[in-house]
Amino acid sequence: MAVAVLLVLGLVAAWSVLIPGVSAWENIIVALIGSLRLTGPVAAAFAAWVAVRRRRGTGGRALTPWQAVRAPLAILVVVMGSFTATVLVLAVKTMLTEQAGRLLPSGLVMSVAGLALYVTIGWVTGWLLPWTITPVFAGIGCYALFAWLSEGSSWADRLVPGTRQPYDLFQGLSSAAFADQTLWLLGISAALLLGWAAVVTRQALVLAAALLAVLAAGAGLSRLLTEPQSVSAERVVYSCQEWPIMVCVHPGMRTGLDELGSTFIKIASRLAGTPGEFSRVEQRPRRDGAPLTPGTVPVHVDDLAAGFADRAADEFVDGLAAKCDRTPSAGYRDVVTAWLRGEPLPGGPLPEHRYAAAWFSGLTETQRRDWLRLHYADFVGCRLQNVHFGGHPARAGAAETGRWPERVGQRAATDKIGIGST
C-alpha cells in the first residue's frame, strides 16, 4: 500500500516539474529530484508511523544494533522501491521518443540519498515522540523545513535534495555537484540514524560509527559550500530549420521548430531592410551575454507549452524599441509593435493615438514596411510623433481627403518615402 501511494504521488509530482515539451534526459532527472518535495515528507510520515508503533511494541526492552536499524532500513527499501517504479515509468515514456542530453546516474543516486534523509528524520522523530499525531507532524515539518531551506540563501539550498531553481536547460547538470550532495545527504542520514541507535543500544562501537558518518557529512558539506555557485554552460549543438530564415533551438526543444519558425518569419519580413533585420533566430539562455553573429537575434523559450512561440515573439518585439512610459510616444510605439506581432492595432489613450492607428491601418503591408524602414530610428528611440502618422487629428479633418493619397500613393513626389512601392 505504501509503495502504491508513494508511486502515485511521485508520478504526479514529477509530472508537475517536467518542463512542457522538452525532450531531454536532464528534464527527466530534474523532475525526479523535484518529486522528492512531495514523496519525501510522505516517506517521513510513514517512517514516523512505523517508529511510533515499534516504540510502543518494544516495551522498553534493550535492542541490539541490528534490531535497532533493521526497521528503518526496511522502510528505506520500501521507499526506494516506489522511487524505482517512478523512474521506470518515466524512463519508458522517455525511451518512446528521441531524447537529447545524457542520463546522469549521479542524479538518481542523490535522489535516493535524499529519501534516506527524509526516512531517517521521520523515524527518529517518531521514536522520540511516540504520539498518535507525530506522523502528521513529521510530514508537515519536513515539508516546511526543506521548502524553507530550498528557498533560502545561496548555501542553504544546497543542503536539501534538489537542483538550483530556476532550472536552465542550457546550463546542464553537474555530476560533481550531485556526488558532493550525495555524500552530504548519506553522511547526515547515517549520523542521525547511528546516533539514535547509539543512544538506544548504548554501545560505543555504534557511537564511533556515528562519528565517522559525521565526518563524511562534514566532508560533503565542505565540498558543497566551496563549489562555485555558477556552473559553466554546456556547449549545445543546436537543432536548426531553414525556411526561409534559419531558426535554431536547443535539441530538447526541436519539436517547437515549426511553430517558432512560422511566427518569426512574419516578423523577419516586416523588419527586412531596417537595422533590425535578421536571417537567423537562435534560442539563448536568459543570462547569456555572448556576442552574436551579424543577422542573428536571440530568443528566449522557457518551455513548449501552448502559445510559447507567441510569448517568445512578444518578448523579442517588445525589446526592439526603448520603453516610452508616460509619454505620448508610447501610444505610437504600441501601434507599431502590435503590427509587428500581427495583432489588431490598439486605439490608445489619446485621440492622436486612435488617429495614428486608423492612419496606419489604411496602409498596405508593403507601405507599412517601407514606412518602418524610413522611421525605424525614431521607433526604437521612442521619438515617434503625430507627424509620422499623417499629422495631428485636429488638422486632419479637412485635409485628410487631399493628403491621404499624397502620403501613401505618390512615391514620385517624395522618393525618400518608400510607401506605395511594390
From TrEMBL:
Parts of the chain that traverse the membrane: 34-52, 73-91, 103-121, 128-149, 169-197, 204-225
Keywords: Membrane, Transmembrane, Transmembrane helix
Listed name of the protein: Uncharacterized protein
Source organism of this protein record: Planobispora longispora
